[in-house]
Amino acid sequence: MDMSKMSALFPKPLMAESSSQEKIPSRQLAAAAAEEYSCEFGSTKYFALCAFGGVLSCGITHTAVTPLDLVKCRLQVDKEKYKSVGNGFKVTIAEGGAAGLFLGWAPTLIGYSMQGLCKFGFYEVFKDTYSKAIGEENTYLYKTSLYLAASASAEFFADIALSPMECCKVRIQTSPTGTFPRTLRGAFPKILAEEGVGGFYKSIVPLWGRQIPYTMMKFACFERTVEALYANVVPKPRAECSKGEQLVVTFAAGYIAGVFCAIVSHPADTLVSYLNKAKGSSIGDAVKVLGWNGLWGGLVPRIFMIGTLTALQWFIYDGVKVQLGLPRPPPPEMPESLKLKLGLVQQ
Fold first, then answer.
1. Are 77 and 277 in contact (CB under 8 A)?
2. Of residues 257, 302, 320, the one with CA closest to residue 62
3. Measured between alpha carbons, how far is residue 295 from residues 124, 151, 287 in Å?
4. Which residues in the chain show pLDDT less than 70?
5. Cα(226)–Cα(167) distance, integer angstroms
6. How far is CA 120 from CA 67, 77, 113, in A?
7. How many separate helices (H) and strands (E) can be counted in the chain?
8. How far apart are CA 127 and CA 41, in angstroms?
9. Which positions ≥6 away from 313 have C-beta within 8 Å?
């Protein structure tokens, strides 16, 4: 990504003719911004609306890329039949027509909407809770660790919500024609009858192994990339950027974060796909069968998918916050007490 081109998207702020003229609009803008907020930061309503934003963010985006996800899963579990991304699309369309590309859309929509609710909603809850627990100074000093801890905690619960639908989705998408139902209303009761509730959670450990590192990278990398873009690329402070300009930064930071997310979580993603298809297999069995190269099968389409997904998810989530009038506080600034301790200001 050419950062110089991105910087050109932001007009240079005009210099005010006098300091007195500059201060008046700033106060008016601050007051207007405060009036626009629909709730208080950290309130129950704030967290509930953040969770709603997560539902839209994850549910819409994952469902939209169902065809690419389907081909990616089939590449992971049957590399003899599906030799490449292009070949995967070709074979899938030949066997099931264009409609065959959308197998598993229902569990995808339901599962990832539930995951998004927990992922984004709980992230905001845990970030606020952990920040209060460690105090203002430590929040600033260890903000990356705060992002990592809050996102890992949120994803733990998000995956419990996702796992049943993920199990149905992978079975629908990867089972040979005629061996397993092709709809959610057929798949869910079949798994429940044959394997019980535990059948929906047989891949929860590799799912955690895939999703927790992914989400930690997704939130921490996004938060730090946003900070870096405003500090080094955007030619004016965030407070002076329009909502549209802020959303451009959000999308760019989301895509950068998504590329790293795809790489760190891919081997576990392959294991999830394999274990949901191969009944009775353990993680060790899957690793032996797949081998090192097999664990990285389908990485290229997943980088494209996850990069686009992550960027769109952050764009939708931030857009929902804007539309619902939610507070969007800037990254933590060094508190005055810490500046005094470090001798950066005089008492």
1. yes
2. 302
3. 33, 25, 7
4. 1-35, 276-280, 331, 345-347
5. 34
6. 25, 30, 11
7. 13, 0
8. 12
9. 57, 58, 61, 116, 254
